[in-house]
Amino acid sequence: MNNKFLTIHRQEAGYRPIHDRIHDFGEVEQTLNSKDRRTQASRCMDCGVPFCHWACPLGNKPPEWNDALSKGDYETAYRLLNDTNDFPEFTGRICPALCEKACVLNLMSHEPTTNRENEAAITEMAFQENLVHVVQPVRNGRRVAVIGAGPAGLVAANRLNRMGYAVTVFERCENAGGLLRYGIPNFKLNKAIIDRRLHLLYEEGIDFRYGEDIDLTSLPEGYDAYVVSTGTPTARDLPVPGRELRGVHFALDMLSQQNRILAGTDFKKDELVNARDKDVLVIGGGDTGSDCIGTAHRQGCRSVTQIEIMPKPPVGPDDPHNPWPNYPRTFKTTSSHEEGCTRRWNVNTLEFIGKDGRLTGVKVQEIKWKPNPDGGRPIMEPAGKPEVIKCELALLAMGFVKPEMPQFADNVFTAGDAATGASLVVRAMAGGRKAAADIDNYLNATNK
Ligand SMILES: Cc1cc2nc3c(=O)[nH]c(=O)nc-3n(C[C@H](O)[C@H](O)[C@H](O)COP(=O)(O)OP(=O)(O)OC[C@H]3O[C@@H](n4cnc5c(N)ncnc54)[C@H](O)[C@@H]3O)c2cc1C
Ligand code: SF4
C-alpha cells in the first residue's frame, strides 16, 4: 500500500495574491508545477473501500486516476477520469470536492488528497498533449431534443450524441453553459474553458440553437425523446417595503451582466448594475453572495457587507452535531471573502430605505433562533434594535425557487437543477448523465 501520505503533506496551489488579482477577472486559482502535482497525486492511499467514489455524485474514481497521474501517465489518467466525468475541466475548477470531505486522509488528519486540483491538472494536460479527441458517432436514426444548455443539458447532449442519437439543444440565451457562463464569475471559471469544450461538441455534430425560449407545455415536435434541463431561473425575492427602489437587484442581475460585459456585450448606462464607488450590501451568506463580493471588489466598490439570517456555522474542519458522512456545513472563507468584507449572521432585513427613488440604506435587525416546541423550523425572535446599514447597492442572493414542471409525456426526462432544485454543477452533470441513460433505456425498451 502507498504510504506517502505519512511523509508528504497536502499542498494546495492557492490563490494569486490579493493585490494582483483584485483588479482583473482572471481566474484566482494558481496551479502547481507538474512535479509537485504528481507528488500530490502520490499521497492517495488507494483505500480498499474508497469513500471518495461514493461521495462524488458522478462516481469519479480518484484513486485510479491519482495513481496514473502520480506516474505521469496523463493519457490513462484522463481516460479514467473522462469515463465518469464528461467535463472535468469544469468540476476541476469549481466543484466543492465532496470526495475530499470523504477522503480517509481527511477523516484521519484533515489533509485529504487534492482531488479537485488533480482533476483540473489532468484535464489541462490532456488538452495540451492533444489527448482529447473528436468522436464521430455512428447514427442510430433517432432524434432527441435537449431544452437548456447548462451543465446538465450539455452532459445529456454529449452522452446521447455519442450513443448515436441526433441531438438538438434549444437554449434561450445567446450561448451555452447556463450558470457556468451567466452566473459563475470569470475569476472562478474562465469562459474560454467552456468554449473549448463547446467547439468539440459542435464538431461532434450536436446542433445548438440559441435564442430559443421553449414553452415547456408545448415542446418542439419531431423528436423521439426530450431532456428538460432548464435550471432554476426564479430567484427568491425579499418582498419588504422599499423593494422597488433603484439599487436593489437580484445577485444574478449583476453577475450575469458582468460576465456578458467581459464577453463583449454593451449595456446602456441606465441598465448597468455596478458597484463602483458604492457601499454594497449582499443579502444571503452562500456562494452566490460570495461571488457578488468578488465581483463588487473588481468593479471598484467602496465597501461590502454580507448578511445572513441564519446563525454562523461552526468554525473548524468538523461539526460534531453533523458528523461525516453528512456534508460538513462549517464556516467557509472563499477567495472573495479574503479580499475584504464585513460578515454578519443572525441578521434579518426589515426594509429598504431610499431618497428620490434610490436606495440609501437597508434597515436590519439582529435576531435569535429558538427551538420550535413542535419540533418544526426554529422560531425567529428579535434580539437587537433595528439599525440601518448604509448602502447604495443591495444584492439579493437568497437562493432560487424550485420550478413547477408541467405534466410531461413518458418520453420527457428532467435533469439538473430543474429536477432537484438549485444544487451543484457536479450534481447537475450527474443528472444529465442519468437522463441520457434513461432515454436510451426507454427508447430501446419501447423500440421506437
Ligand atoms: C452565482 C452562482 C455561483 C455558483 N457557483 C457554483 C460553484 O462554484 N460550484 C458549483 O458546483 N455550483 C455552483 N453554482 C450552482 C450551479 O451553477 C448550478 O447547480 C448548475 O449550473 C445547474 O446546472 P443546470 O444545467 O441544471 O442549470 P443551469 O446552469 O441553470 O442551466 C439551465 C439552462 O437552461 C436555459 N433555459 C431555461 N429555461 C429555458 C427555456 N424555457 N428554453 C430554453 N432554454 C432555457 C437557461 O438559459 C440555462 O442556460 C452556482 C450558482 C450560482 C447562481
Ligand atoms: S467532481 Fe467533485 S466530488 Fe467528484 S471527484 Fe471531482 S472534485 Fe471530487
Automatic annotation (TrEMBL):
Keyword flag Oxidoreductase: yes
Domain annotation Dihydroprymidine dehydrogenase: ranges: 21-128
Pfam families to which the protein is assigned, alphabetical: Fer4_20, Pyr_redox_2
Keywords: Amino-acid biosynthesis, Glutamate biosynthesis, Oxidoreductase
Pathway(s) of this molecule: Amino-acid biosynthesis
Residues annotated as domain FAD/NAD(P)-binding: 143-314
Designated name of the protein: Glutamate synthase subunit beta
Record organism: Xylanibacter rodentium
